[in-house]
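Hi R.,

Here's the chain you asked about this morning:
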Amino acid sequence: MNFSKLAVTEIKRNPTRTRIAVLASALAAMLIILLRIIPEGYPLEIAMPERTYSGGDIVIFPALAPISSAEDKALILRDWQGSDWQSHILYYFPKIKKTGYFCSEGAIGWRAMIPKDVISAISDIPNIKNVYPYRALPCLVTTETSGTFPAILRGFNEQPPHSLEPYLHKEEKHNPSRFFSESCVEDMEAITSRQVMGKIPPGSTIHVAIPEPRVAEFVSPNGDTTLHMGMDWDNLAKYSFLVVGEYSIKVHEVIDYEASLGSPDPHPKTIPLYWERPEILIPSALFEKIAEETSDNIDPAYFEPFSSVFPTYQITLTVDNMSQIHQTTHLIREALGDDYGVYAIPEALFDTSSKGHVVMPPDLHKLFSGLIMLFSAFVVAGNIYIIVVQQKRKIGLFRVVGATSKDIRQYVLTMVAYVSLSGTCIGALLGNLLYFFSFLASDMAFGTWLSQVLSEFAIITGISLLISLSIGFSIAHWASKLPCAEVLSHE
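And here is the predicted structure, written out as tokens:
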């Protein structure tokens, strides 16, 4: 007598309970696969305006390290002593100016970083493509239409990691393939913000007064020597720039309730929101030239080479694969320590906004996966137990016709395995179908995705079956010990 075949037939005769158990296994498999999507990375185009404007995919600040629930160091609240022109930290963490930030008791805190020190510390980390220090100086801008107002002069890469073209309005005569021309340094070219500075037609000239930058050394609370950039506003250097274009960085949209009120259009009208930061973009080579000309009191060693030793308060990194950015960010945090704030730009945006994006810490993925599989295994085993209890008479008849305890255990365990495998396969198929749409929006290689799908399917199926059979064995053992006479006497 084939007891495995009898078990499958019995499962099919109890569709209601079987469906519940299969559904539990399917949901468990789907949840485990979908949990993997969250910590892996982000879609390729997510937060592209911010990544374009900040100049990278991961941003590093000289403070504001993420606080872990496993942190066992003493934390203190420290005031933020920075300025807006130094970095984009007030865009990503706007409350830091009022509330300060938590850090470890011996942390150095907010200070200027030397790019080569950071680059050296993270040189062995995979998936890092390029490193871009943020270069900026405060200034006063004078235009014919807007008068004089404070702004930020920023050195911008002539070929940035993410193209500025979608956000740029240029002079028609200007070379359409580049937003800075080949003679940009000699021609003193600049790009202005349309939202902040008003309409400055391409071809106009703006006049900029730049204070003399100073590099000062201080001793931090833990005794380390730190660098800070200061400005001497008594010594101003004046430059004139040719405006070759304007940029508009649209980052979001909000509903225009007033315009939508009473409108026959079923779709609400929206108002675009822009990154309103008064930055004047000039070529990085031109910025380096101006910094050298205006820095009479700075040690020449900070200019040799300028790109790697001149102090900065923000460093951005580009990555080869956004699909692995969480792991890369985690490795950078470990390499730099808790005195640096390292964030994937989408993470910095969503963690401090009301968008409610949840990021599953990678180290909790295994724990949650195990708990989910354990729960589904109990559901499967519980339903099989009820089926077995209802089939006491049939088990007694099996014993009468010569079934051994081993045959009864085989009968019960086959039911457990059939339900567990059916549910896991269905859930894995549906989960990976959803995962496939996430893959299409990412830059993960197909071979990597397929390998991950197959390996996870094997792991989930194997562990789910193992847990279900382990719990189901106690039911099978109990059923195999049922005396046939006792069972039949109660029927």
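One quick note: Confidence is low (pLDDT under 50) at residues 173-177, 353-361.

Cheers,
M.
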